[in-house]
Amino acid sequence: MKHYDLILIGSGAGNIVLDAGLEQGLHCALIEKGKFGGTCLNRGCLPSKVLVTAANLLRDIQKAEAIGVHTEQARLDWPVISRRVWQKIDENQSIRAEYQAEANLDVYEGSASFTAPGQLKVKLNGGGDSELLTADKIVIATGGHSRTEAIAGLRAEDYITSESFFGSRYPAKPWRRVAILGGGPIGTEFAHVLSSAGSEVHLIQRNVRLLPHEDPEISQILLDSMTSLGIDVSLNTVIRQVEHPADQDPSAARLRLQLQPHKAETEPAGRDTSLEVDVLLIAAGIVPHQDLHPELAGISLDERGWIRTNELLETSAPGVYALGDCNGGAQFRHKANYEAEILAHNLFGGEAGGPVSWAERRWARYDLIPYVTYAYPEVAHIGRTEADLVRSRQPYRVGYHHYYQTGKGYALGYEETARQGDGLVKLLTDPAGMFLGAHIIGHEAALLLQPFVDLMYAGPQPFTPHNPDLGSADTKAWRAAGPERQLAPASLQLLDESIVPHPTLNEAAAWVSAYMSEVKQSN
Prior knowledge:
Layout: E1 2-9, H1 15-23, E2 28-32, H2 38-43, H3 45-63, H4 78-89, H5 92-100, E3 105-116, E4 119-124, E5 133-140, E6 145-146, E7 159-160, H6 162-165, E8 177-181, H7 185-196, E9 200-204, H8 216-228, E10 232-234, E11 237-243, E12 255-261, E13 273-277, E14 279-282, E15 286-287, E16 320-322, H9 333-348, E17 371-373, E18 379-383, H10 386-391, E19 397-402, H11 407-412, E20 424-429, E21 435-441, H12 445-457, E22 459-460, H13 473-480, E23 486-487, H14 492-497, H15 506-510
Helix pairs in contact: 1-9, 3-4, 3-7
């Protein structure tokens, strides 16, 4: 049995905690079963935004004629874009090499699983198992993987997910006809990219609207925009069966999807129809990995199988923490980074690199996680929706301002139309004018959201326990003492501790705080 000060499972956002431990000279272990860098680098936000950014530019060029800019017919150069996608993904190799060179770090490449409380073993990728591993602190940052659907007639070769798209099934050229199952952030982003690349795209959504976590008005604007771009959207619809046409003509579709309404009594009604496509891309959500066996370590799970954590990222097992997608909630890299920074601060930010004092502890707030979807147009929000406020019977005020009502919006080509375009800022406040939610759809929505993020984080931080049944006796005593924390509005601390949606250029401004010089003084 080999003992460490810190074990990290998963090499994504959890690397923030690992790096903090290594800086203190701790003896650490890193366990990674796949490519280093986590979901974000290898099959998530970074390679997808290389595609999205190119697709955005194409769409913007197509709209530019309205403001007097004429170009020859624009198109996406798929080989060039693909080279840039894989150039970014391949950065995982340098991350792997850097960690393997760390003197105080053992790297295990394989799948970790708990065998008992505080005990792990690794099924090594090269064969065999590691010896049993224990640690004073274990951090789980294993992410999740795409949910697949049990559909009659569906074979493994018929569908792809974000994992296989940015892996062995990456297309040498865009498909002619593609169906996408799922109208959340991943599905709508892929629909935008593939449609821009020339594919005939059919988006199939079980829910009665796109992006169900967004304000309904915003969802409707996105639906209008996507359909105006030629994307076929079927709401309240599921795939009943997959058939395989016998026609061997190379130009013929490989799959015939039989569609039906999800709920016949719900509006808008789904439809019984068939659809012929070359491939099905499943983007129906994320589910937990099944190989960790956290139950053997006394780690409690929620009803969906995610690891339960509290506001300090503690699990129900002493000395074991979890962050990122694996603990449920908003599945964004910026939420995982936020949690990792809190945990690194609390564990290693005190005197001599130890835990911080009670008064210095940071805790996670889950009421102010910014959401960004890189569809076309871009969608971003923070805080509560109007529907949520109505359900809770909370008094509120609402304000709207359209891009076309501003000088810059007009310059960008936004003009008032029957549906008032796709540029909108919707702000919700309480009767006294305090922000409750901000919702934006349109050009650079994520950039426009950041001031609201910072403003809503500024000032006293209200303390709300998250899963209050979890936590050590020390944590319970800390809660009982009434934690207090304040982020000064005009401070570097606010930049450090409010969330910056990832990946956006907001990070260039916010992360400059990490590169501040020593105090300079003029003579």
